[in-house]
Design a protein that fits this description.
alpha/beta, about 45% helix, 9 helices
């Protein structure tokens, strides 16, 4: 089944669901484009007061859909277009959205999922949730703008561990780091997220949007500071370790770096 971003409404709250059956909601290129379009439209919806972002089937998002990677990642221009024009614009749309966004995090929150969660205002997670960005195992770095978003949200120590050592952390560590607002039992995450969203929705909507614009400006400053890295950021596209990491993953064998 192809991945999809599903949007529903619960009164003044939008429910955005990442859905990719059998892939732990891994993000396809089409899903990135749909996510961007959804968030670009939210700011113009005067009746909308909060967004809940979640995954289907007990997982948030396992990362990117690696089965797509051989079709574009080994060409520098296509790789740049993917990260800058698809992933980057989707994350930018989330950061620019002036409607509060609550992340309902269950199960795995890895790679692309961590980036998406990092763009949310409030993050609630189940006790068994796991967080990381183990792309070092795939032989490539996180794109500069994406790394800036994650670094700002998780903090320097955890960002370095995740990106340099492929570290994966539990919910308690992420709560201690300030990434999560609250940990709840796994079977209560959905109810908690919806209740929190309706709590926001009951408050002054114009004030919430004004606060979001200030917070968005602060978040944007971190991304803008990495702009000087972009000219050479995707030169690794045809590198041996990049090809080896992705090929090994798809072949279900350990990579040889």
């Amino acid at each position: 089944m192809a991945g999809d971003i599903r949007i529903a409404r619960d009164g003044a709250v939008a429910l955005v669901t990442m859905a990719h059956e059998g892939r732990l909601n891994a993000m396809t290129r089409a899903m990135w484009r749909t996510l961007r379009s959804a968030f670009e439209g939210f700011s113009a919806d005067d009746a909308l007061r909060c967004v809940v972002l979640r995954g289907e089937g007990g997982a948030f998002c396992a990362g990117g859909d690696i089965s797509e990677y051989p079709t574009f990642r080994f060409d520098p221009l296509q790789l740049r277009a993917f990260h800058e024009d698809e992933v980057g614009t989707a994350l930018r749309a989330m950061l620019d959205c002036d409607v509060p966004v609550v992340a309902q995090i269950e199960g795995v929150c890895m790679g692309a999922g961590l980036e998406i969660a990092s763009c949310c205002d409030i993050r609630l997670a189940g006790r068994s949730a796991k967080f990381g960005a183990p792309i070092a195992k795939l032989g490539f770095p996180m794109a500069p703008r994406e790394a800036a978003v994650v670094h700002r949200a998780v903090g320097d120590a955890l960002a370095r561990d995740m990106l340099l050592a492929a570290g994966v952390h539990g919910a308690q560590r992420m709560l201690d780091a300030g990434f999560l607002l609250r940990i709840v039992p796994d079977d209560a995450v959905a109810d908690e997220a919806i209740a929190y969203a309706h709590r926001i929705a009951a408050l002054a909507p114009d004030a919430a949007r004004a606060n979001k614009r200030v917070l968005g400006a602060l978040a944007g400053s971190a991304i803008s500071r990495v702009a000087d890295l972009l000219p050479t950021a995707y030169d690794y596209a045809d590198a041996r370790e990049h090809r080896e990491g992705i090929t090994a993953f798809l072949a279900k064998r350990p990579p040889v770096f």
